[in-house]
Amino acid sequence: MIIRHNGLILAFDVDWDTKRSIVFLRGIMDLIDAVKVGWLQLLNIGPNGIKELTSGINTYFLADIKLGDIAHINEYVIRRLRDLGINGVIMHAVTGRENLNGVAKLSRDLGIDIFLLISMSSGGELYDLNLDYNVKLGTELGIAGFVVPATKPNIIRRVRSMVGNNYQLLSPGVGVQGGKPGCATASGADFEIVGRSIINSESPREVTLSILSAIKDPRC
Ligand code: C5P
User: What SUPFAM superfamilies has UniProt attached to this entry (predicted)?
Assistant: First the structure.
Protein backbone atom coordinates (compact mmCIF):
# COMPACT_ATOMS: atom_id res chain seq x y z
CA MET A 1 0.00 0.00 0.00
CA ILE A 2 1.26 3.47 -0.85
CA ILE A 3 0.98 5.84 2.10
CA ARG A 4 -1.00 8.88 1.06
CA HIS A 5 0.31 12.25 2.20
CA ASN A 6 -0.13 14.41 -0.89
CA GLY A 7 -1.92 12.21 -3.42
CA LEU A 8 0.80 12.60 -6.03
CA ILE A 9 3.11 10.06 -7.71
CA LEU A 10 5.94 11.17 -9.99
CA ALA A 11 6.16 9.31 -13.32
CA PHE A 12 9.94 9.52 -13.48
CA ASP A 13 10.34 8.83 -17.18
CA VAL A 14 13.89 10.05 -17.71
CA ASP A 15 17.03 8.66 -19.32
CA TRP A 16 19.31 10.49 -16.89
CA ASP A 17 22.15 8.88 -14.98
CA THR A 18 21.57 7.96 -11.35
CA LYS A 19 23.46 10.96 -9.97
CA ARG A 20 21.30 13.47 -11.84
CA SER A 21 18.17 11.47 -11.00
CA ILE A 22 18.91 11.48 -7.28
CA VAL A 23 19.60 15.24 -7.24
CA PHE A 24 16.29 15.89 -9.04
CA LEU A 25 14.29 13.59 -6.76
CA ARG A 26 15.77 15.13 -3.59
CA GLY A 27 14.46 18.50 -4.79
CA ILE A 28 10.81 17.39 -4.70
CA MET A 29 10.69 14.29 -2.51
CA ASP A 30 8.81 16.03 0.28
CA LEU A 31 5.97 16.77 -2.18
CA ILE A 32 5.39 13.33 -3.69
CA ASP A 33 4.27 10.02 -2.21
CA ALA A 34 5.98 7.62 -4.62
CA VAL A 35 8.27 7.47 -7.62
CA LYS A 36 7.22 5.49 -10.66
CA VAL A 37 10.16 4.09 -12.66
CA GLY A 38 10.05 1.92 -15.73
CA TRP A 39 11.54 1.08 -19.09
CA LEU A 40 13.54 4.28 -19.42
CA GLN A 41 15.53 3.45 -16.29
CA LEU A 42 15.78 -0.25 -17.06
CA LEU A 43 17.19 0.44 -20.51
CA ASN A 44 19.47 3.31 -19.52
CA ILE A 45 20.80 2.83 -16.00
CA GLY A 46 19.90 -0.86 -15.81
CA PRO A 47 19.00 -2.93 -12.76
CA ASN A 48 22.09 -1.77 -10.85
CA GLY A 49 21.15 1.85 -11.45
CA ILE A 50 17.62 1.18 -10.21
CA LYS A 51 19.07 -0.40 -7.09
CA GLU A 52 21.19 2.74 -6.60
CA LEU A 53 18.06 4.91 -6.90
CA THR A 54 16.01 2.86 -4.45
CA SER A 55 18.92 2.83 -1.99
CA GLY A 56 19.59 6.55 -2.39
CA ILE A 57 16.03 7.86 -2.02
CA ASN A 58 13.77 6.90 0.83
CA THR A 59 10.35 6.55 -0.77
CA TYR A 60 7.94 4.05 -2.29
CA PHE A 61 9.16 2.88 -5.71
CA LEU A 62 6.58 1.69 -8.22
CA ALA A 63 7.83 -0.25 -11.26
CA ASP A 64 5.74 0.48 -14.33
CA ILE A 65 6.87 -2.17 -16.76
CA LYS A 66 3.28 -3.18 -17.50
CA LEU A 67 4.23 -6.75 -16.84
CA GLY A 68 2.13 -9.26 -18.75
CA ASP A 69 3.79 -12.58 -19.46
CA ILE A 70 3.05 -16.18 -18.57
CA ALA A 71 3.09 -17.12 -14.90
CA HIS A 72 6.65 -18.28 -14.27
CA ILE A 73 8.19 -15.30 -16.09
CA ASN A 74 5.94 -12.92 -14.16
CA GLU A 75 7.06 -14.52 -10.92
CA TYR A 76 10.76 -14.29 -11.85
CA VAL A 77 10.38 -10.59 -12.69
CA ILE A 78 8.62 -9.85 -9.41
CA ARG A 79 11.40 -11.54 -7.41
CA ARG A 80 14.09 -9.59 -9.28
CA LEU A 81 12.26 -6.29 -8.84
CA ARG A 82 11.91 -6.99 -5.13
CA ASP A 83 15.71 -7.50 -4.96
CA LEU A 84 16.14 -4.09 -6.61
CA GLY A 85 14.18 -2.35 -3.85
CA ILE A 86 10.89 -2.01 -5.75
CA ASN A 87 7.73 -1.82 -3.60
CA GLY A 88 4.95 -2.08 -6.17
CA VAL A 89 4.55 -3.28 -9.76
CA ILE A 90 2.03 -2.42 -12.49
CA MET A 91 0.77 -5.48 -14.36
CA HIS A 92 -1.49 -5.91 -17.36
CA ALA A 93 -4.87 -7.43 -16.56
CA VAL A 94 -5.22 -8.73 -20.08
CA THR A 95 -3.09 -11.85 -19.54
CA GLY A 96 -5.89 -13.23 -17.39
CA ARG A 97 -6.41 -15.24 -14.24
CA GLU A 98 -4.14 -18.17 -15.02
CA ASN A 99 -1.10 -15.96 -15.50
CA LEU A 100 -1.90 -13.64 -12.59
CA ASN A 101 -2.98 -15.98 -9.82
CA GLY A 102 0.44 -17.27 -8.76
CA VAL A 103 2.13 -13.91 -9.09
CA ALA A 104 -0.54 -12.23 -6.97
CA LYS A 105 0.07 -14.71 -4.17
CA LEU A 106 3.86 -14.52 -4.52
CA SER A 107 3.70 -10.72 -4.36
CA ARG A 108 1.68 -10.79 -1.17
CA ASP A 109 4.24 -13.18 0.36
CA LEU A 110 7.11 -10.90 -0.71
CA GLY A 111 5.37 -7.71 0.39
CA ILE A 112 5.14 -6.33 -3.16
CA ASP A 113 1.97 -4.50 -4.22
CA ILE A 114 0.42 -5.37 -7.56
CA PHE A 115 -1.53 -2.63 -9.34
CA LEU A 116 -3.56 -3.96 -12.22
CA LEU A 117 -3.76 -1.93 -15.42
CA ILE A 118 -7.40 -2.03 -16.52
CA SER A 119 -7.69 1.03 -18.75
CA MET A 120 -5.25 3.07 -20.84
CA SER A 121 -5.00 6.87 -20.67
CA SER A 122 -5.19 6.92 -24.47
CA GLY A 123 -6.83 4.29 -26.65
CA GLY A 124 -7.12 0.89 -24.99
CA GLU A 125 -10.66 0.17 -26.16
CA LEU A 126 -10.25 -3.57 -25.57
CA TYR A 127 -9.68 -2.83 -21.91
CA ASP A 128 -12.67 -0.52 -21.63
CA LEU A 129 -14.95 -3.13 -23.21
CA ASN A 130 -13.96 -5.58 -20.47
CA LEU A 131 -13.78 -3.20 -17.52
CA ASP A 132 -16.15 -4.99 -15.15
CA TYR A 133 -14.55 -8.36 -15.80
CA ASN A 134 -11.05 -7.01 -15.11
CA VAL A 135 -12.07 -5.19 -11.92
CA LYS A 136 -13.72 -8.34 -10.60
CA LEU A 137 -10.64 -10.36 -11.55
CA GLY A 138 -8.42 -7.96 -9.60
CA THR A 139 -10.57 -8.11 -6.48
CA GLU A 140 -10.58 -11.91 -6.61
CA LEU A 141 -6.79 -12.03 -7.00
CA GLY A 142 -6.25 -9.91 -3.89
CA ILE A 143 -4.11 -7.17 -5.43
CA ALA A 144 -3.38 -3.72 -3.97
CA GLY A 145 -5.18 -1.61 -6.52
CA PHE A 146 -5.83 -0.52 -10.09
CA VAL A 147 -4.50 1.94 -12.66
CA VAL A 148 -7.36 4.10 -13.96
CA PRO A 149 -6.75 7.02 -16.33
CA ALA A 150 -7.30 10.67 -15.51
CA THR A 151 -8.40 11.13 -19.12
CA LYS A 152 -11.46 8.91 -18.44
CA PRO A 153 -13.04 10.17 -15.19
CA ASN A 154 -16.17 8.08 -15.79
CA ILE A 155 -13.98 4.98 -15.53
CA ILE A 156 -12.42 6.19 -12.28
CA ARG A 157 -15.90 6.73 -10.82
CA ARG A 158 -17.12 3.36 -12.01
CA VAL A 159 -14.12 1.46 -10.62
CA ARG A 160 -14.35 3.30 -7.30
CA SER A 161 -18.03 2.45 -7.01
CA MET A 162 -17.21 -1.20 -7.69
CA VAL A 163 -14.28 -1.63 -5.28
CA GLY A 164 -15.16 0.67 -2.39
CA ASN A 165 -12.22 1.89 -0.33
CA ASN A 166 -10.33 -1.37 -0.12
CA TYR A 167 -8.20 -0.76 -3.22
CA GLN A 168 -5.91 2.07 -4.20
CA LEU A 169 -6.63 3.75 -7.52
CA LEU A 170 -3.67 5.32 -9.32
CA SER A 171 -4.41 7.74 -12.12
CA PRO A 172 -1.99 8.69 -14.92
CA GLY A 173 -2.74 11.03 -17.79
CA VAL A 174 -2.65 14.33 -15.87
CA GLY A 175 -1.11 17.32 -17.61
CA VAL A 176 0.40 16.61 -21.04
CA GLN A 177 -2.17 13.90 -21.86
CA GLY A 178 -5.02 16.26 -21.03
CA GLY A 179 -6.21 15.35 -17.53
CA LYS A 180 -6.72 18.46 -15.39
CA PRO A 181 -4.73 18.35 -12.13
CA GLY A 182 -6.99 17.55 -9.18
CA CYS A 183 -9.81 16.10 -11.25
CA ALA A 184 -8.77 12.43 -11.10
CA THR A 185 -8.62 12.48 -7.31
CA ALA A 186 -11.88 14.44 -7.26
CA SER A 187 -13.39 11.59 -9.31
CA GLY A 188 -12.26 8.96 -6.81
CA ALA A 189 -8.58 8.19 -7.46
CA ASP A 190 -6.21 8.06 -4.48
CA PHE A 191 -3.19 9.31 -6.42
CA GLU A 192 -2.55 11.29 -9.56
CA ILE A 193 0.51 10.20 -11.53
CA VAL A 194 2.32 13.05 -13.26
CA GLY A 195 5.44 12.85 -15.40
CA ARG A 196 6.33 15.28 -18.19
CA SER A 197 4.53 18.31 -16.72
CA ILE A 198 6.95 18.14 -13.79
CA ILE A 199 10.07 16.63 -15.34
CA ASN A 200 10.21 18.93 -18.36
CA SER A 201 9.42 22.05 -16.41
CA GLU A 202 11.95 24.82 -15.80
CA SER A 203 10.77 24.90 -12.18
CA PRO A 204 9.67 21.40 -11.19
CA ARG A 205 9.10 22.30 -7.56
CA GLU A 206 6.71 25.16 -8.38
CA VAL A 207 4.78 23.00 -10.86
CA THR A 208 4.54 20.20 -8.29
CA LEU A 209 3.25 22.64 -5.69
CA SER A 210 0.61 23.93 -8.08
CA ILE A 211 -0.55 20.36 -8.81
CA LEU A 212 -0.80 19.73 -5.07
CA SER A 213 -2.95 22.85 -4.67
CA ALA A 214 -5.25 21.54 -7.40
CA ILE A 215 -5.48 18.14 -5.67
CA LYS A 216 -6.38 19.89 -2.39
CA ASP A 217 -8.82 22.29 -3.98
CA PRO A 218 -10.03 20.81 -7.28
CA ARG A 219 -11.84 22.89 -9.90
CA CYS A 220 -13.18 20.38 -12.39
O1 C5P B 1 4.29 12.29 -18.79
P2 C5P B 1 2.94 11.81 -18.35
O3 C5P B 1 2.42 12.54 -17.14
O4 C5P B 1 1.94 11.74 -19.47
O5 C5P B 1 3.22 10.30 -17.86
C6 C5P B 1 2.20 9.36 -17.64
C7 C5P B 1 2.82 8.09 -17.13
O8 C5P B 1 1.80 7.15 -16.81
C9 C5P B 1 3.75 7.38 -18.10
O10 C5P B 1 4.80 6.82 -17.33
C11 C5P B 1 2.90 6.29 -18.70
O12 C5P B 1 3.66 5.16 -19.06
C13 C5P B 1 1.98 5.95 -17.55
N14 C5P B 1 0.71 5.34 -17.87
C15 C5P B 1 -0.23 5.98 -18.67
N16 C5P B 1 -1.43 5.35 -18.94
C17 C5P B 1 -1.70 4.14 -18.42
C18 C5P B 1 -0.77 3.52 -17.58
C19 C5P B 1 0.44 4.17 -17.33
O20 C5P B 1 -0.01 7.10 -19.13
N21 C5P B 1 -2.87 3.56 -18.63
Answer: Ribulose-phoshate binding barrel
